Amino acid sequence: MLDVKGLTVAYGTLTAVRAVSLRVDEGEIVAVVGPNGAGKTTTLSAVAGLLKPRHGTIEFEGREIQGKAPEDIVRRGVALVPEGRHIFASLTVEENLLLGATSRIDRAGVRRSLDEQCARFPILADRLKQHAGYLSGGEQQQLAIARALMSSPRLLLLDEPSLGLAPRIVDDVFATITELRAGGLSVLLVEQNATRAVAMSDRAYVLGTGRVTRSGTPEQLGEGGGMAAAYLGLS
Ligand code: ATP
């Protein structure tokens, strides 16, 4: 479904991602883990069209999308839930949700998606007319995910969805991701919470200073010590 080959992305003279290759097959949850500054967000941003790669190709459903405009990539079926959620605090929950559907022209379909998100996230349904700034961190994360789903994507890119959330809320967020996959969505999940992310994934890639240092199934990467060593670049 998603096939990234030899991706290199730079900020001026700083090469943040170097020859990274990864793939997501249909219906998979694929995790990208690694320490701060490893290049996880940069990789996701390039897939979403927010950054132009220096080298490499990004294929989605057999078509090259590298360098295409973000709205074009959304229209093709790839939606990003950005790090830090980027909720518009002074807009209502409903207005935030509708911003996720600006690439769609089928008004009836948008209405249906809104109803679906309200059914999936009842807390958002209760607060549709309230300013999003009044939501808690966990509720804002639900809103950020629901907003991305409003574009009716087939691949969801999630950047650090557990960041800054209480452990119980993190459980809810990870449960939501698993449910979405059960509903047929494919997921590329970037996380610093490596152990949890790898455990829930079908396959994972470990990034260290812009390069893939290890990859494989959770079993291949190993639980506990093995995973921690990989994460720290010790193995
Ligand atoms: P984090 O979890 O902290 O977001 P990350 O693995 O997502 O880490 P990136 O944010 O992709 O890492 O950063 C990779 C490298 O690129 C780092 O060295 C970072 O300092 C640098 N970098 C990121 N964004 C920019 C930017 N806008 N301008 C210049 N350098 C940047």
Automatic annotation (TrEMBL):
One of its GO terms (molecular function) is ATP binding. Residues 2-234 form the ABC transporter domain. InterPro entries: AAA+_ATPase, ABC_transporter-like_ATP-bd, BCAA_Transport_ATP-bd_LivF, P-loop_NTPase. Keywords: Amino-acid transport, ATP-binding, Nucleotide-binding, Transport. Coiled coil: none annotated. Belongs to the ABC transporter superfamily. This is ABC transporter ATP-binding protein. It comes from Nocardioides taihuensis.
